[in-house]
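Supplementary Note 2. Why include the ligand at all?

Several targets in our set were suspected to adopt different conformations when bound, so apo predictions alone were not considered sufficient. For every target with a known small-molecule partner we therefore ran a joint prediction. The input for glutamine is given below.
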Amino acid sequence: MAKPLSLKQFVAEVKKGNISIVEHTEKILAEAEQSNQTYRYFNLIARDSALKQAKEIEAGIKTGRHKGKLLGVPISVKDCICVKGIESRAGSHILSGYTPLFSATAIEKAKAEGAITIGKTAQDEFGFGTFCNNVGIGFARPLNPRDRKRCCGGSSGGSAGFAALSKLTHTSIGQSTGGSIACPASFCGVVGLTPTYGLVSRYGLIDYANSLDKIGSLGKTVEDAALLLEVISGYDVNDSTSLSEEMDELGSVNPSNDLRVGIVKELFKGCDKPVQKECRKAIDKLEKEGATVEEISLPLNAKFGIAAYYLVSTAEASTNLAKFCGMRYGLHERLEGNFNEYFTKVRSKGFGEEAKRRILLGTFARMAGFRDAYYLKAMKVRTKLIKEFKQAFANIDVLLNPTMPIVAPTFREIEKLSPMQQYAMDLCTVPANLAGLPHASVPIGIHEKMPVGLMITADHLQERKMVQAALAVEGLR
Ligand code: GLN
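The joint prediction is reproduced in token form.
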């Protein structure tokens, strides 16, 4: 099977009239529908609206109206990102029936460049998970494209799984709070790019934790993922935390080996030996090609990252989920009893087990009497962790470590893990997310026939360096 055309090649062929967008959209919808019977990458496939968009764009090209960078490119979208007129549930039963009246800014930007939304991808409920097994009530867990007994990784599992499986040109919009783009990219063997916090507008994102959430991209190659990120980034008047920086030409950056690379000692140590070995091999090659490599120590991040992250993220999540009570969004029940009785009924039925666990944990962490000891302390620790990163970036361009400490585990193996053991798997991805740093996961090796990903972290707004390094790493394969 030939490799699919890159986004740029595809758009060039579309412009020359060599590819029919409608036919290509038909093909990828058929692929999504067929694979969904087994792999469950989509919570919803938007056949009618995708074909409608395809026809409009095709007609627009003929009249010279459409010229975009993503002309006719099919994109799948994580369920937590709102798409106008398409049920958007963030993988949760409590949002059953919620059909947004507007699209997220990231979607509008992609559409303005000619992209076609084909469906909403499977995820852990509201993003609460590392394996995409914490899906909401009534949802199916997506299965790893290389081995169906294994997970896709979370929480953007459907996006990564379909990006890996699809034989056609396609890219996906995902979201990360503590590693949800990098982790599934690593487990499924695709590229995941998470930008600096604020680079992509969060308007229209069903939040998990506002101070941590980032929208990013997943694709088969660094170039594809970088082009999508280029398109969706930039200031948005609807999101006061969005940054004014644009990432022009991010999809056209060239690889560079002329980089000062720091290997994060502690994060390496926390990983399985075979995973370490694969990553070392890639780094050795990178060094041979001209990179300057040195060991870097981030002791505070390694020791306190997980604890600080799970306190901050659950505190924010528990407030964000308060609005889901059967009054405005999604699930409704017969109105009976007093407010408390009604809310309790809806929330008991609508939230899955992990969502309930996090509501309890987060509410506790910010309760009067415990707030100073937990939430505020975690916030102070977070500042220290950011400082530690900033010191490291004074002398280096990018940091490298394995994305995940293991290859994609089987569902059986996951069942044996306690919640705490599951949280501990985020050791390598959580620090960069807490600090709002841009990071990439690039597949670099194989262990037990499963892909291993290398994580590349750059300083704030140094997306170009991240992409330069990611392209160099990709070129080693
Ligand atoms: N595994 C992490 C968590 O469960 C990160 C998930 C995410 O980035 N959405 O919080």
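The two ends are 19 Å apart (CA to CA). The pocket of glutamine is lined by residues 127-130, 155, 176-180, 208, 313, 426 (CB under 6 Å). Comparable summaries for the other entries are listed in the accompanying table.
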